[in-house]
What does this fold into?
Amino acid sequence: MKKIFAANWKLFKTPKETREFFTQFKEVSHKATGELVFFPSAISLEATSTSLAGTAIKWGAQNCYSQAQGAFTGENSAQVVKELGGSYVLIGHSERRKIFGETDAAIAEKVAFAQSLGLIPMLCIGETLEEREGLHTFRILETQLHLGLAKADKSKPVVVAYEPVWAIGTGKVATPEQVAETHTDVFGILKALGFETTPILYGGSVKPDNAAGLIQQPHVNGFLVGGASLEVKSFIDIASV
It folds into this structure.
């Protein structure tokens, strides 16, 4: 299975900064050992599209609505992402769930709609520290996958990104043993649901100094990187493992 190295820029980088980043990044992108995917903020989507035109580097939106258009102020249209040349949509990130109150039912609608347009949904799942310490990790991830993929088309691609909420932006990283155990569990759940060929990415304070060890764990097919993806050198170092 091919490796995927995805960058979630969250609410960072202006269109100008986006263009400057890609001017530099394209010069070293050949070092990557897998597919590269960028998720810029919505306002920088067009800058990303024009910057990456003619390259093999993929990109997508950090979120989308479950309808193409309508009276939905502030939402992102997956149809526009597709028209601009995007390939992916990030769906169900823990920040969307926690800060913006997204439910598993809404996430399932988004996954299905993105697929219907030919986009690849990257479904994010993950447990809180309280849930892990309470030994509820498997149950939480199983529920998120069952509900999030409830309306997904098994014949169309989807990617899953496991991000322990307690490791996102905290500097804490799951140990290789924790990652191996959890990714093996996620693979088992996906197989039971009929999604056994789905790539599983790890996210949560991934950096150049821990990427090589994490990528060697079973069923780790790449990374979803936050802060370390904002700098050209750090992200290409991660994507070169």
